[in-house]
Specification:
Jelly Rolls; six-stranded antiparallel β-sheet; JmjC_dom; HSPB1-associated protein 1 homolog isoform X1
Length: 498
């Protein structure tokens, strides 16, 4: 380990300190030199996996105004060799079940594949992933997932309920569109389709329907194109839309557990109980495919209530252990405890010292992913009043190079602003697709009244009701009430989606 750390820009202790202080996405450079996993190209993985069948999700290419959720995709079980032949334009029998899908019309994605399952017969592969260099002793491939896709393969915009995320790009490039938790209301959260621990956005990030989702104009996008060898840190509860931008991409990630996940599990248990109870009830509009394919089956209400009670008990036990630790703690030992990958508590004295001032060492080896609009010179010169007028932040598409983080250059490319001020009016910048804010001189759309009338007479559906009942703000409060009532906790640190 010492030899490995000597060639890294940050030691394991420094990396842990950085991770404990980061408040926004950042890219670690030159931290994975020597990791065997960097040789996990699709070609090499095909040789390792042989005849093992992998489930691929296929989606039709093309512009949409709504996200393409997994419930709307097709699926095939195929060898990785079939996948590679398909990307090369081969025909039957080389492409196997991919023969039913045109490569020109579809993208394919083997997403969220547990490495522990893929290589259960080759456990030595687990050692190729070395999260121990980031200070997570014992964490490797067994605690990671694998993602293999073609150009255009994407994950709908969502946030993860638990922990934070470390993502290593192995082959090709992926573009990440990230939004802070404070922008949750602008992302129009939904739990339909339902997937445990995933809160989806109703907005198609690349082609937003601003008439239906006008507040998305004010969402603050942090965009980065991750390249091979780089590791992206995705903070807790940051929204993200991810898309492959090269013919073949491979990435590996690991979700890092946090102590507050105990509260989040209560919230998730409540959400599941409500979703299953309401969506399982007979109704004229309850005919949609609401359960994500990642979920095995619809649990009974009795099972879901058991899950709620187990989550509350687990939280209570954790609080009891914490109280006991405080009572028996040596006054000289005030350092917090931290879990390793096997969930064993280990002292963290040498890793995190909150009492010591710390400045995050941004530079060539650690690059912050900034909000695209806030970084532009135009935005920096604007007054708060100007910013209120500049309502559209997502009308313009970013070029690939503008959003890339390159290991050869740390300079930020100033993006073209989506909207500029001109003689007191809002106008779209040259060459950009007009947005709703620019439809008329006074910044209002001619269709506003028509849209209002449509909304006023629209029928409230079951999913509309669930979007309100399961809104993150509501679930947070329900979780607090449950824990106050059943554990005696007051104003718990519930999962926050400001």
């Amino acid at each position: 380990m010492a030899a490995s750390n000597s060639i890294k820009p940050f030691s394991t202790e420094e990396t842990q300190m950085i991770l404990s202080h980061l408040q926004q996405p950042a890219v670690f450079m030159n931290m994975t030199c020597g990791w065997p996993v960097l040789h996990w190209t699709a070609e090499n993985l095909s040789g390792c996996l042989g005849d093992k069948l992998i489930r691929f999700r296929l989606g039709r290419k093309g512009k949409m105004l709504t996200p393409l959720f997994e419930t709307q995709c097709s699926f095939v079980e195929a060898k990785l060799a079939h996948f590679l032949s398909w990307t090369r334009g081969h025909s039957r029998p080389d492409v196997g079940p991919f023969s039913e899908f045109s490569y020109a019309e579809y993208w394919a994605y083997a997403d969220y594949k547990y490495i522990a399952n893929l290589f259960q017969d080759q456990p030595s592969m687990f050692k190729d992933v070395k999260w121990s260099d980031f200070g997570f002793e014992g964490r490797g491939g067994r605690e990671s997932t694998l993602w293999i896709g073609t150009e255009g393969a994407n994950t709908p915009c969502h946030l993860d309920s638990y922990g934070y995320n470390l993502v290593l790009q192995v082959q090709g490039r992926k573009r990440w569109h990230l939004f802070p938790p404070e922008d949750t209301s602008k992302l129009y959260p939904t739990r339909i389709p339902y997937e445990e621990s995933s809160v989806f956005s109703r907005v198609d990030v690349l082609h937003p329907d601003l008439r239906s989702f006008p507040d998305f104009q004010r969402a603050r996008a942090h965009i980065v194109t991750l390249q091979p060898g780089q590791v992206l840190y995705v903070p807790r509860h940051w929204w993200h839309y991810v898309e492959s931008v090269d013919p073949i991409t491979v990435s590996v990630n690991s979700w890092i557990e946090l102590a507050v996940d105990d509260v989040a599990r209560v919230s998730e248990a409540v959400t599941k109980a409500v979703v299953c109870a309401i969506k399982s009830a007979p109704s004229d509009d309850n005919t949609d495919n609401w359960l994500n394919p990642t979920e095995e089956a619809v649990a009974s209400h009795n099972e879901n209530m058991q899950y709620v009670n187990l989550a509350i008990r687990a939280y209570a036990e954790r609080q009891k252990d914490l109280c006991y630790s405080k009572l028996t703690q040596d006054p000289k030992d005030t350092c917090p405890a931290k879990q390793d990958s096997s969930r064993q508590i280990r002292k963290n004295c040498d890793l995190i010292r909150d009492s010591v001032p710390f400045s995050i060492p941004f530079g060539p080896n650690l690059i912050s992913v900034h909000c695209q609009q806030e970084d532009s010179p135009e935005m920096k010169e604007m007054t708060p009043k100007d910013l209120e007028v500049k309502s559209s932040r997502y009308c313009a598409g970013k070029s690939q190079e503008d959003c890339s983080v390159s290991s050869n250059a740390v300079q930020k490319t100033e993006p073209l602003s989506a909207v500029r001020l001109c003689q007191g009016k809002r106008e779209c910048s040259p060459g950009l697709t007009p947005c709703r804010a620019c439809d008329s001189a006074d910044g209002t759309s001619e269709n506003n009244s028509e849209h209002y009338e449509e909304s006023r007479h629209a029928t409230v559906t079951t999913n509309d009701l669930l979007d309100c009942l399961l809104h993150p703000d509501i679930i947070i409060r329900v979780t607090e009430l449950l824990l106050e009532r059943h554990t005696g906790s007051h104003r718990t640190t519930a999962p926050s989606y400001p």
